[in-house]
């Protein structure tokens, strides 16, 4: 149950990105105001549902790649959003039971559901931080209570950087987080992109709803987040095209989804 602080902070009069996205991926942790703007945006741009679904599938593929092929056993998930199916810790610990995962968010709805996130295998560990992307130093300091930051970490920032209006600030935040992680760590990013008139219109409608704005960016700017890192093949691509898995086949997986992603490795020994 939400504590008193969470109840005070939760505003159900305006849509919220975490609840809105939760509605699009079939979750139940949303309010009428979120469903109303969601249905409005479906009318403007039905493809946004495909963005939500395929982005979630990308999370699973990226985590499995890091855990299985790269041996990563630690994950820092910043801007985690509301729990649904196959959260980062569930995917990671399914293939690596000793994996440790730290979730970071400062949203009161997510805080209220933190108990659902704080499950773990006996061999691993999962923690939740009520912290802010805009304070990377504090995020890293708190994460060090669960993760060994001298060993590689998978930094997950999915569908979150669009909330940072200034692109250079967003890049700086990513650089600061990666600077606190050792060589062999990986950056995993996905975000909606300004690659169709429909997506741009959907973004404008969402931002006009009173919710915290989300800014869709050109693909080149998504690629810019990986500057200085070694991009993992196939590079920065639409989310369904990143190492596709036949098991993920479904709506949107073969189409021109307006969201791009990538995985980059921090070089060094």
From TrEMBL:
Keywords: Methyltransferase, Transferase
GO biological process: methylation
S-adenosyl-L-methionine listed as a keyword: no
Methyltransferase is among the record's keywords: yes
GO MF annotation list: methyltransferase activity
UniProt cross-references to SUPFAM superfamilies, sorted A to Z: S-adenosyl-L-methionine-dependent methyltransferases
Any single Pfam family the record assigns to this protein: Methyltransf_19
The protein's name: SAM-dependent methyltransferase
């Amino acid at each position: 149950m939400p504590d008193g602080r969470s109840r005070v902070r939760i505003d159900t009069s305006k849509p919220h990105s975490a609840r809105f996205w939760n509605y699009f991926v079939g979750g139940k942790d949303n309010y009428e105001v979120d469903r109303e703007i969601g249905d409005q945006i479906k009318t403007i741009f039905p493809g946004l549902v495909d963005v939500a679904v395929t982005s979630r599938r990308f999370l699973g593929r990226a985590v499995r790649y890091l855990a299985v092929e790269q041996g990563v056993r630690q994950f820092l998930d910043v801007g985690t959003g509301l729990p649904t199916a196959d959260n980062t810790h569930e995917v990671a610990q399914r293939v690596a039971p000793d994996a440790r995962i730290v979730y970071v968010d400062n949203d009161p709805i997510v805080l209220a559901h933190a108990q659902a996130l704080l499950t773990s295998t006996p061999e691993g560990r999962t923690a939740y931080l009520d912290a802010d992307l805009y304070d990377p130093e504090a995020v890293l300091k708190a994460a060090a209570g669960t993760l060994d930051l001298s060993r590689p970490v998978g930094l997950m920032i999915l569908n979150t950087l669009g909330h940072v209006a200034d692109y250079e600030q967003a890049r700086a935040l990513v650089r600061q987080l990666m600077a606190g992680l050792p060589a062999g760590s990986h950056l995993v990013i996905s975000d909606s992109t300004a690659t169709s008139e429909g997506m741009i219109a959907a973004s404008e409608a969402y931002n006009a709803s009173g919710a915290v704005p989300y800014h869709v960016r050109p693909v080149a700017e998504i690629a810019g987040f990986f500057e200085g890192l070694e991009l993992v093949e196939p590079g920065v691509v639409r989310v369904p095209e990143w190492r596709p898995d036949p098991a993920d086949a479904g709506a949107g997986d073969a189409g021109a989804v307006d969201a791009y992603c990538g995985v980059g490795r921090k070089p060094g020994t």
